Amino acid sequence: QVRLEESGGGLVQAGGSLTLSCSASGSIGGSTIMGWWRQAPGKQRALVATVSSSGKTNYADSVRGRFTISRDNAKNTVWLQMNLLKPEDTAVYYCYEGSPVRSSWGQGTQVTVSS
Description:
Layout: E1 3-7, E2 10-13, E3 18-25, E4 33-39, E5 46-52, E6 57-59, E7 67-72, E8 77-82, E9 91-99, E10 102-105, E11 109-114
Parallel strand pairs: 2-11
Antiparallel strand pairs: 1-3, 3-8, 4-5, 4-9, 5-6, 7-8, 9-10, 9-11
């Protein structure tokens, strides 16, 4: 069905920037949500940001003002631009794509922010 391919994770110093990307293959429909969740060891997976096919965005309070999510509907691709990174942003970041009837997850990409 829908397969998500993530890229862009890595190691960055506090205050630096990193951009994640995720491309969805297959037919995802005309109205879907794409976004990013993250999970640190021993913690719950938490929402980072989402964007609808119409461009509406939603951000976690912890990243609002620092992260920017965007998507290209024609390419079925979503990006997460992360600025002013903090050590507490360190986590595995998972790409998400979904609709009211289904959802898909990427395998995750590690983001590590050093202090």
